[in-house]
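Table S5 (text form). Sequence records supplied for joint modeling of the two-component complex.
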Amino acid sequence: MRRFLSFFLLSFLSFCVAASDYHEQLVLRPLPLSALLASFNFRSNTSLSAFEAHNYRFFPRSLGQILQHAGTRELHLRFSLGRWDAESWGARPWDGAKEGGTGVELWAWLEAASEDEADHKWLTLTNALSGLFCASLNFIDGTRTTRPVMSFRPEGNHPSSNSTNMRLFYGVLPREVVCTENLTPFLKLLPCKGKAGIATLLDGHKLFDASWQSMAIDVRPVCLPGEECILEIEQTIDMVLDIDRSTRPRDNPIPRPPPGHELKCDTSKPYHSDDTCYPAEYGANQQWSLAQIFGRPMKGTCPLSDPKIPPVCLHVPDSRGVYTSGGVETITSKDGLSRCFKVQPEAEFDLVLSHVETEGVAPPALAGSIIKPETPSLYAERSFTGYGQERGGVQTILRNPSPDKEVEFVYMESLPWFMRIYLHTLKARLDGSLTEQTSLIDEVYYRPALDRARGTQLEIRMRVPPSSTVFLTYDFEKSILRYTEYPPDANRGFDVAAAVITILDDDDDAKSTPGGSASVSSSNLRTTTLLLSLPTPDFSMPYNVIIFTSTAIALAFGGMFNILVRRFVAADEGPEVSLKRLKTRLQTKLGGLFKKLGKAELKNE
Amino acid sequence: MNGGEVTLGRTARLYIGAAVLRLALFTIFPGLPDLLTGRVEVSTPVTSFKRLQEGLFLYNHNVSPYDGGVYHQAPLFLPLFSLLPSSATFPIFTYLLYVAVDLLSADALLKIADSGEAVSSRLFTSPRREKRWSGFVIAAVYLFNPFTIATCLGRSTSVFTTCAILHAISKAIAGAPISAMIALSFASYLSMYPLLLLPPLLLLGYDRRPAADRTSPIAFTSKHVLVVAGIHSALFGMSYLITGSWEFLRSTYGVQLTLSDLTPNVGLWWYFFIEMFDSFRSFFLAVFWLHLSSYVGGLCVRIRTQPLVVLTLLLGIFAIFKPYPSIADVSLFLAMMPLYRHVFPLMRYTFVVAAVVMYATFLGPAFYHLWIYAGSGNANFFYAITLVWGLGLSLMVCDLTFAILRDEWEVERPEMVGKEIRQI
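The corresponding structure-token record, covering 1029 residues in total, follows.
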């Protein structure tokens, strides 16, 4: 996979030299378990001088103006949903460089002379992007912004800017629900606005129904030696569709178990008989068409895009038959593992992938139907440990599948302030051993959270030895908030942003040298987000609490005051108890009144 | 055993017994210290040992512990605990330190009790002075009080404040007001609220000076206030040198003043300020602090004749109404209570108070469990029990005040002993 993508990357780069400057491509790749990875890539360039002179051709003006206003040199924005199942799907597309954690992620390099100016520009940027993408990016405030020191590196070339003035900001909104309203502005940034070309396949119903999807926007300056610097915007959508789910008929969308005679059974199982069936793994071998999967066929090509680049590529072994609509030129790669299709500009394009004819009922392996996914260099999963709403722990399991190569990476967490972590409890241990292994952690950068002002930032540079598993654990305490600080559904919990793992390559230094490759390849992966439940107060009774506490204080103060200021007398001394005195007073007064009345009556008589 | 050791023997045995009990609990139940450290009744954000360890870890790794929301304790703890071997590997040194601090507190308490200041001060001598407990009994009550033991096992840093306060009182009684002021400065440096004990402590120190030394009260006061200010500035200066910035002021005293950390505790503040409307938060913070400090003047004026009583009552009030109270503060108040054994017969609600305190002690952890772990109760359960606890303790403080004042009054009216009285 990586090889292919880098091949395409390189081919794109070679085209960048020519200044025409919009490319789009869709790469389809069936994955095991009836999943299909669809990677849409749109890339356009403008020269930096044209950009600075406010001449926009392919570069979207709306975004360009925001970037200029906020002094942004490089921008990365991600909208993601779902979970990449690395165990079955293998390595991530683009090596994870174009994905984000669930929710919205934004990181950018801003050029500013001072910290205050940088903060101000970041605020401007988040607010403007919030309006542009209909996302709550304006909620990326001080508590959600971190300044990573080890995890991110500029992908573009920044020869002209003074590197001390480039400031990196990273903000994340794990709770943001990515939805159609974010897709529409995303498509509007494209030169063909989603009316022609591969973007016509993007339908909100299908995209947000995917098992995993990630929309990415990357803006970076690229300078090749001896040429004018260009500003490159790359928009990427990666999605993993469930073929069964997508091909379900619209008028009958409820999944039902197939009747017995249609079940595909694994006949190699010893218990296989007429009435027992172990479902065979046939999903990857299914037949599907583009129109079925995406709900519509592709409408021609975008006339602005580079005609030399085939718009659709499919990664399946040559043994699988592919049928296309008329007038399509098929280019088969030499290794026989992929083919690309050149589409007529005005015609509708559809593609049917047939299933492999297998003799007998049990296909022995997937070998014939799909390309086996590449093993990722690291598996990571993160979860909470402990119980109760007072304290807990975080455990990240990092597994290196490679038999001979050590993986070195930076693990970054950006946690909300109400999760008070205890760094002294941070431990890394190898699977199978109970003792801590300090040698696994090379370097820790820690910026503690400050209540209501900023979140925790934790970056750990560490290593996992070959074919071993490392458990990284730490404890935290859940703090209780003011009742106004809870969201409306407080008992749902709070989302904790995904941990970002940046794998450091051995030859990383060579690649990042200025003037070398335009784009520094970085390999990332992200864990899932976590749901943190905090203790909650009773939201219904602020008045009652104020009244009860005030009463308790008044009782204590009143009792004390009473004892301190009043005099002691014997029980039978001093003035009488007020009730008795009141009674006698009343009696005397009433008696007098009756007497007076009696006298008056007597007089009247 | 020879004759010389016999006189010391009883107290020494008491101390050894208390130390052995604590060390035995530490070693027989190795999980107990950490369990108690995690209890909200024992550890508050400003005294928790776990937070101290985190602060220490950050301090040892050159991250300012005050640039974060976890560590809110005094900076001088950091070098002190860095000198000790790490409590994770050699916990015994930490245990020994805490046991020693407890014993030092008990020793100060023993001196306070043996001085007889509680029954007979310069301006007042109780008619019941014969009926008092010896220092040995009072130290034993302190050392074997379950609250004290729990605080010691939980390694709450409030034991240092307790020790400093008791030493300040004992030094003032011993006629060494300067030492008393130094000890008080340490106490208020560690947890701020003991500064409110300065007026009664000045009165106590003034009363306990030999008659010849008793110069004008104004000169005495200004001299000792200057001492307190001087020691404070020295301590702050040292803290500044240790941490390299003044951030610690905001993070230690600012947190107590503004209650930004709302972790539950046995006091009344946390839930009140969780539920408080944002626009009234600062107003009520001011009111609560004003309330806490309002007792000082009144008690000093009304019970001028017995400054030690004022100190005791104030400690009781602080244990209820300070921002982050814990059972450590109650154990300090309960340590001073037995000094007034002679007025116990005058107290009216001993049974009610004892019952309420026991009730809250047992139900508090249960209700906390229901809220936090079982999920079958909500925050109001624990809040209700803190209210009961606060009311019970305030009844105890009021009752003690009543008994003291009645004892005073019976000097004027000896014929009223044992008769029914009322207040007008």
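Note: Residues 9-19, 359-366, 508-520 of chain A have pLDDT under 50 and may be disordered.
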